């Protein structure tokens, strides 16, 4: 895995003689990986999408349904971000800057789930007691 | 400039090279400290790429707010939620196949993500013809997706679904549907324009003269993100 090294060098020399360098070393630039890996991930994404669709087609219900939906969703999201968007090969500093802030969103989701239940329960109690 | 690069040996080592996980984590964190604390550019990627990532991060927050608000209204409504499985079914030869339209849209977007990844790859190989072709194919898939979304919207509007009303159940279904898919469709449409512009520039040799094809990769980041958002919309809005 020498991508990090290459990218650092290329980035630092970018303002000096990029066109000449690039012409000499067409492979010393950016994120380059074998096409095989993209095709593999592509097939996997298809497979996971078909599986997600089958959940609905076979009308699975309850925890099994939700668990499978989340599992396939996270697998797909992970492969898209990691391989297609090349996050797996980026340096940890960039990974952390982009992947950590969304954790704050889990707090929002948690709070809004509680709030949604509160609203529902308030309406329910109003319906039952009449006020 | 160049002498700032070698601050520490760890700067050049990725996380995946450590012999054990703990070593890898230590090396990685040392790299983070070196990247953030040294008197140099923190992210050793082209600035356009760093900016695109930050834009996508902000977009993540926007889409999460939409999906969270959808979750909130779906939990709190007392009116039954319509079954997306039935709402988005298609009649094939008299048989109603559940959610078929959305499944096809999902496949189209995934296919376009694959062609985009290949376009980025061919861009770095300096293969102008293949890169242009793959970018245009990706844009065409994107346009097809938007077309199918227009069909879906038309179908629901004819059935009487409005952002404020829904004859099939909870009114919030209408507002969530139009807001979430509308915003996503807008992103796809913008992406089609973006990819077409980049494709034309690849074709006329703009990036060869510039000496770098990183713009193709940056456009790719945007396009994969659009696909990524669809993964979440598909899971939470259509399948849940």
Q: Mind explaining what this structure looks like?
A:
The complex is a heterodimer of chains A (131) and B (240). Helices cover 79% and strands 0% of the residues of chain A. Chain A contains 5 helices and no strands. The longest helix of chain A has 27 residues. Chain B has 240 residues and is mainly alpha-helical. A two-stranded antiparallel sheet of chain B has the order 1-2. In chain B, strand 1 and strand 2 form a beta hairpin. The longest helix of chain B has 33 residues. Chain B starts with 20 loop residues before the first helix and ends with a helix. The N terminus of chain B is likely disordered. At the A-B interface, helix 1, helix 2, helix 3, helix 4 and helix 5 of A face helix 1, helix 2, helix 4 and helix 8 of B.
- As a whole number of angstroms, the C-alpha radius of gyration of chain B is 22 Å
Listing every helix as H and every strand as E from the N terminus to the C terminus, the arrangement of chain B reads HHHEEHHHHH
Distance linking N and C termini of chain A:
67 Å
Main-sheet strand order of chain B equals 1-2
* Order of H and E elements of chain A: HHHHH
Largest sheet of chain A: none
The helix count of chain B comes to 8
- Major beta-sheet overview of chain B: 2 strands, antiparallel
- What's the count of strands of chain B? 2
Q: Which structural category fits the helices and strands of chain A?
A: mainly alpha
Q: What structural class do the secondary elements of chain B suggest?
A: mainly alpha
Helix content of chain B: over 70%
Q: Which radius of gyration of chain A do the C-alpha atoms yield?
A: 23 Å
Measured distance between first and last alpha carbons of chain B: 53 Å
Strand content of chain A: under 5%
Uncertain regions of chain A: pLDDT < 50 for 5+ in a row?
A: 4-28
């Amino acid at each position: 895995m020498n991508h990090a090294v290459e990218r650092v060098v290329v980035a630092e020399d970018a303002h000096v003689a990029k066109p000449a360098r690039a012409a000499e070393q067409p492979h010393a630039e950016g994120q380059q990986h074998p096409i095989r890996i993209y095709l593999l991930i592509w097939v996997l994404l298809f497979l996971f999408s078909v599986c997600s669709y089958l959940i609905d087609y076979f009308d699975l219900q309850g925890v099994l349904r939700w668990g499978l939906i989340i599992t396939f969703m996270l697998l797909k999201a992970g492969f898209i971000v990691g391989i297609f968007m090349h996050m797996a090969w980026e340096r940890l500093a960039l990974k952390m800057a982009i992947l950590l802030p969304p954790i704050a969103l889990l707090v929002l989701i948690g709070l809004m789930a509680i709030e949604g239940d509160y609203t529902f329960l308030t309406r329910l109690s109003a319906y039952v007691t009449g006020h | 400039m160049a002498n700032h690069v070698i601050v520490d040996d760890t700067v050049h080592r990725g996380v995946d090279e450590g012999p054990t996980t703990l070593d890898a984590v230590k090396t990685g964190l040392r790299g983070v400290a070196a990247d953030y604390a040294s008197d140099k550019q923190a992210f050793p990627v082209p600035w356009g790429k760093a900016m695109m990532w930050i834009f996508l991060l902000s977009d993540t927050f926007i889409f999460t707010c939409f999906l969270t608000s959808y979750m909130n209204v779906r939990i709190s409504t007392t009116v039954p939620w319509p079954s997306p499985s039935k709402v988005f079914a298609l009649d094939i030869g008299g048989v109603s196949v559940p959610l078929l339209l959305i499944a096809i849209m999902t496949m189209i977007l995934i296919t376009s993500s694959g062609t985009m990844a290949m376009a980025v790859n061919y861009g770095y190989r300096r293969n102008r013809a293949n890169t242009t072709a793959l970018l245009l194919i990706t844009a065409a898939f994107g346009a097809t997706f938007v077309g199918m979304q227009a069909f879906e919207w038309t179908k629901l509007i004819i059935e009487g679904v409005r952002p404020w009303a829904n004859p099939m159940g909870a009114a919030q279904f209408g507002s969530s549907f139009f807001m979430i898919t509308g915003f996503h469709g807008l992103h796809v449409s913008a992406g089609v324009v973006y990819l077409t512009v980049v494709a034309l520039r690849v074709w006329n040799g703009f990036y060869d003269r510039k000496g770098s094809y990183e713009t193709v990769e940056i456009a790719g980041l945007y396009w994969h993100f659009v696909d990524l958002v669809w993964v979440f919309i598909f899971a939470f809005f259509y399948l849940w």
